[in-house]
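Proteins fold reproducibly. Look at a concrete instance:
___
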Amino acid sequence: MIFFAPINRSCVKEYPIVPFFEGEDESISEYIDSNAVEFSYFRTALLNTNLYATLSARNPHGNLYTLFLPTNEAFERFVNSHAGYQNIDELLSDQDYLSALVKYHIINTGFPTNEFSFGALSDTTISGDLLNIGFSGSWDSTTYVINNNASVIVPNIELANGYIHVIDEVLTPVVFNSMEWLTLQSEYSIFSDALRITGLKDTFNTINGIALNTLLIEPDLVYNKNKIYTIEDLINVISPDDMNYTSATNNLYQFVAYHIMDGKHFLNDFEGVNTNFNTYAVFPLYINGEGLDILINTSAQVFDTIITNNDTTIINSIGINYEASNILTKNGAIHQIDQMMQLYRPRPKRRVFRFYEEEVIQEARSVAREYVFNENDKSKFKYISWSGVEEIRYVKTSGIEAYDDDYIALDGNFEISYQIPKILPGEYELQIRAQTTSSSNASIWVYLDGKRIGGNIDLSVGPDKWGNEYRWMDVGTIRLEEFVSHTVTVKSLIEGTFYWDQIRFEY
């Protein structure tokens, strides 16, 4: 069995650029012409679909192209395994299918292999699809694998309008969702059955072609290691006394939902992270990525203790089987994990929020000035809403004590609400940081999910004990019972100015 190399990019063997082209002005199409003996089928496909001219010219978007170029042998294997075509001529005469197939091999950006990441490329094919990159091999020789199928056998052929990477298989557009893919894989039968009986199989769809989720799955061998051989065995371990498996309160439902991450994540998305990721269950899972040495829920459970001579190794985290991961489906990605992943409630920790979830605020942060948003701008905001005043201001400046030199400002008799991201259950001290040194500042009430917390807060009390004009104001103690998003609302009790810097949930 071939295993993926440990994730150390310095260990990836970079091949030299292949100087097969005749000069700097040779295009991708001209290179294929020059090597027509090896690539005659793809050349015919280009000519039959009017895409030859596309790869003969510079990219009109100002970028280069990347072509994953299948050999003739790759086309022959494709036809032999494709029930719809008796021979290569039938394939090359099917212009509609051929056009989609060729477009699936062309990226609208130039990617040499040193810009490959262990996951989806940052741009799509010209057919609008994602391709993902994997690695296989050993420490001293690594091969790039596209869509877990086609190996790059000659990389980095640099041409005037882009790069060619020769591959040993024809890439075929992904047409299955995650559940459909699982149905075809016999080694995941237990988890597949769990998805069906909980009804969570229906989460693997797309909306307008957008990928929605990521699946972390144990193969049957991992369950077998835990003396679980059938779905009935899993039920007896997870939910022996509750047969209402489609209920969100059922333990089996939560177990399965914990394996479904919100959003599309390839393994390169976990590089360098140290954070929680939302799942479809009541709790998030915790991922720590040192490079691509990805560990899940470290210290949540001891899975094994290995003693070798005088050395003891404790396995206390869930790892990724890189060889069986980065599976691309229509609705996201699938990754195989090496331990049975049970629901784990992470310990709460301090959370600070500063409005940066708002795309309009993120864009404004790049240029220091005052941005005014009025009634006509409300639709631009997803997480912030206001009433009682005609406008709010986002101010990015310098030389002030607001964190990162920015704040949101309101004047008058106002009400502003801010929907914060999900936060772990627990008991917190709710605090707001604002400017407090102006006599024209407002007095406020603070609400969490519609319930008033604490008493009146006077924002004109003066600087803190260190003389800072921005200070943390204690609102009150709150207890959160669920891992959900919450809405913080600030209302003026005595109208005035409110320079809102941050909000903190202190654990």
